[in-house]
Amino acid sequence: MFTYILQVILFQMVFLAVYDFFLSKETFHTYNRWYVLGAPMLSFLLPMIQIPIFQEVVPKLLAFSLPELLISPQTIAEQSPYYSEGSINYIELVFYGGVGVFGSLFLGKLIKILSLIKANQVIKKPGHSLVLLVNQINAFSFFRYVFLGTQMSKEKQDVIIKHELIHVQQKHSLDLLFFELFRIIMWFNPILYLYQRRITLVHEYITDAALLQTTQKHDYFNKLLAQTFDIDNLSFVNQFCKHSLIKKRITMMTKNKSKQIKKAKYLLLVPVLAGMLFYTSCSNNDAENDVLLTEKKQSQVPQIDKIPFVLLDEKPSFIGLDAQEDVSFDKQLKKFVARNFDATDLGLKSNKYRIYAAFSIDDTGLVKDVRVRTRDAKLSDEMKRVLSLLPNVKPGIKEGKPVSTLYVLPISFKIE
Is the pTM of this model over 0.85? Predict the structure, then answer.
């Protein structure tokens, strides 16, 4: 899980760098909006995608890697002499504590918005509701509610309402709410804060561009610069005037529209995505190949003449070991390992352990060439013991003949 989170953050950083260096200064604001929204979500999905063709490019040894096996963590923990019922997982405690804190802060902001709606006059309008803030000069919107201070002049109010209505029509509050919820779950990820700032700026670019179609640019600049609002820090509302963004907004409004040919910059996503998929597809293979390679140089490892699992016409199956037509070989194997693995006398401390085990099944169904890679010698010995108990299996079939196959079994568990 820790590796997965690091990959997510890494991919989010790469997507953000591509946006900042190549896309942010172009006037394709709608495209940029969807880019900034989609990149964080895509970063969550990419580490879970593995392309077989990429996996076949890198490894020198062909093996079938079973899905990672989690060996009854609670059972193993109870067998460990270091386990006690009162033990605390501090990492989970900190994580859920952060979720609770940031979730509470979000609810506080939401309650503040709802209290403004309840405490002030609300005027129903076609497509929106106008909330009049008595004796204030604030202006912002939240979904279909437009909040407007009554201390503004009528001329300023008209411009501000037009501005905020574009936010309402474009449903920009959904984008901001999306990042607020994202930040609650991944409160420890600073990259999400940068994404939220980018989407807020894109919203203003979209709104400014729409208003300039019906408003003189010079007049709009003056009205924008004349506003000095002191709104509270509510990151999921659309503010008419946010001082940190004014310079960038004016700079963008004075730019000429980007030429259509510059849309080709979005094609940069193709090699970026390909590189990410290549990385995620091969990262696991690197660790698994460590099991198959000794401490010697790779060139000294003999070639293994075995048929890859994916190329078999008929997959191997256990003989007399919960053999059922509807139970796959990997499920039978995982069940066997989980049942026979014994951590009672290993003296494991509170930590997470990971094992890579490799073995082959020859054309007679004999399990042999058992190799294990892990940081703990006792774990390695126990894993070898369990795999040595494996019964003969019905070998895989290729072109009507039994053939040899190589397997890699990743195992992880945590002693709490």
Answer: no
